[in-house]
Give the backbone structure.
Amino acid sequence: MSRTDADPIVVAVIPTFRAPAELRDHVQGLLTQVHSVILVDDGTASTHALGISDPRVTVIELPENGGIARALNVGFAAARDSGATHVLTLDQDSWIHEDYVDRALSALESAVARGERAVGAAPSSAGGTGIVMDRDGHPFDPIQAGQVVRLDVFDRVGPFDESLFIDAVDSEYTLRAWRAGYRYVLVPDSDIGHELGTLVPLMIFGRHLVLGGRPRHLLYHAPFRTYYMVRNSVVLSRRYGRERASWTWRRTRLLSSMIIGGLLVAGDRRAQLVALYRGIRDGRAGVGGRIPADLMARLTRLGRNAR
C-alpha cells in the first residue's frame, strides 16, 4: 500500500500461542492494509515454524508463557521501535475485512475532529455478533481483537496489566483509559472474523432449541478460562467498582449470564464449579498471574473424569 510521510503508520500486533497454520494466510492478507506485522509467540516456540519469510513480518518468541497482556506489551514496544503511530491488535484466530484499517483510521480522525479524546477504534461486530454499546454511543466493553490504538495515547495511559494474564485485559484497559479521559470509538458497520469460544447446541428434551427460526447455542469455555474470567472480573469490580459502578455491574451481569449458560451445557460441570469458586476467592484476595499449578492440575483431572 502506498503512503506519504504524513500518513499514519499502522503495525499489526498478534500474540500467538501454538500458532495455527491458517495464521500464515491471515498475515499475508493483513499486509495489504498495514505497514508491517509483529507476531509475539507466548512461550510455545511455534510461530517460526509457520515459515513466514516476508521481511515485513517480525516474529518474537518469548521464552515462557507470560499471558496475553505481556505479549501485547512486548508487541507494542516493538511497534513503537519500528516507527508505528497506530497499532492494530488481533488474536491469532481473528482476521479483518478489506479496507478495515482505513475505515478505523477515518473513524479516529473524525472523532478527534469533533473534539473527542479517542484512545482507539473498535469494530461494531465480531464474528457476526454486534458489540454491546454504552448509553452514550461508545463501545461498552470492546474486545481486544480489531482495535486500532493510537500509540501516543497508549503511552499516556500505560501498558496492559500483566497481572491479569488473560481475560479482562482489554476491559481493564478500557476502564483505565476512561479514567484518563479517553474513550474508544466505533468503526461503523464493520465486522471482524473472530472465534468467541465453543458454541454448544442448546438442547431441550433432546431437541435443539430453535427460536425465531434460528437454532440456539450457548457459549462454552474450558474450566481454566472460567477461572480467569471470574477472577479477573472480581478484580475489576474491586478496582473500579466505586467510580464505574454501573459499568462494572452491567459487565458482571453479562458475564454471569454467559457462565451460567455455559454450566447448562458443560459436561465438566464439577470442574467448572471449582473454577468458579476459586476464581471468586482468588479475585477477592487480589491473586494475579498464571493460574496456580495445583488448581490447573485439579481442573484437568476433573475434566478428564467427566469424559
